[in-house]
Design brief:
The chain is α+β, with helices and mostly antiparallel strands and 219 residues long. Helices cover 48% and strands 23% of the residues. The strands form 2 sheets. A 5-stranded antiparallel sheet has the order 1-2-5-6-7, sandwiched between helices.
Length: 219
């Protein structure tokens, strides 16, 4: 073996890897600007014309202090909580009856950046005490760089997000084609996890879990 040649080849490979990861992570700021520019007008119209619930656009820096973030970059669109029209009656230890209105927590669309700069799109379903979809969340896709989240892709993502919110809500219903679409997306997400490694899901899911804890929420 030519050790000098081998050492130089390995050095080139690792140096290219360093450059690739650094560039991917730097592209996150541009993704933030593009996501905000594309989705903010929609959120404005939803506030005016969508009377079911409010939506919120937030970023990782809204939840985490710099010293805590460890470059845990994420963007999320969250649906608030809304009553489901059911009243719960609970009797405590003293047999006093208490009533409460059951609410459904809307789902979340999350763009999260991994340590290598890749971006996972993760969608959480709606959830309540009386109705819960079989999947708490699905992986919509994993992209090797923030620049892969194009305008057309953002359009497809938000359309699927609203379809998934409706299907998983207590007020929703699904057709056969809807179920086939969800199964296709889940299957594609599984292939992406194979490509990037199953540990990627733990990393990305942990980023989103952080936002719920920071907000005092539970999924």
């Amino acid at each position: 073996m030519d050790y000098i040649k081998f050492a130089k080849e390995q050095n080139i490979k690792f140096q290219e890897g360093i450059k690739r990861v650094e560039e991917n992570r730097k592209k996150w700021e541009n993704l933030k600007l593009r996501v905000e520019a594309y989705y903010k007008p929609l959120l404005k119209e939803l506030k005016e014309h969508f009377k079911f619930e409010f939506f919120y656009l937030s970023f990782s820096e809204d939840y985490l202090e710099k010293k805590q973030s460890l470059n845990q970059n994420f963007i999320q669109i969250s649906m608030g909580s809304h009553p489901v029209g059911i009243i719960s009656n609970i009797k405590d230890a003293k047999t006093n009856e208490k009533s409460g209105i059951i609410s459904e927590k809307g789902g979340t669309l999350s763009f999260s950046q991994g340590p290598q700069g890749e971006v996972m799109v993760l969608i959480y379903s709606c959830k309540s005490e009386v109705f819960k979809f079989e999947d708490d969340y699905i992986v919509y896709g994993i992209y090797k760089s923030p620049e892969k989240i194009t305008k057309n892709r953002m359009s497809r993502i938000i359309k699927f997000y609203f379809k998934f919110m409706y299907i998983t809500s207590i007020v929703g219903k699904s057709s056969t084609s809807d179920r086939l679409l969800i199964n296709f997306v889940k299957m594609r997400g599984k292939f992406d996890l194979i490509k990037f490694g199953s540990s990627a899901l733990k990393i990305f899911k942990g980023l989103l879990d952080t936002t719920f804890k920071a907000n005092g929420l539970s999924k």
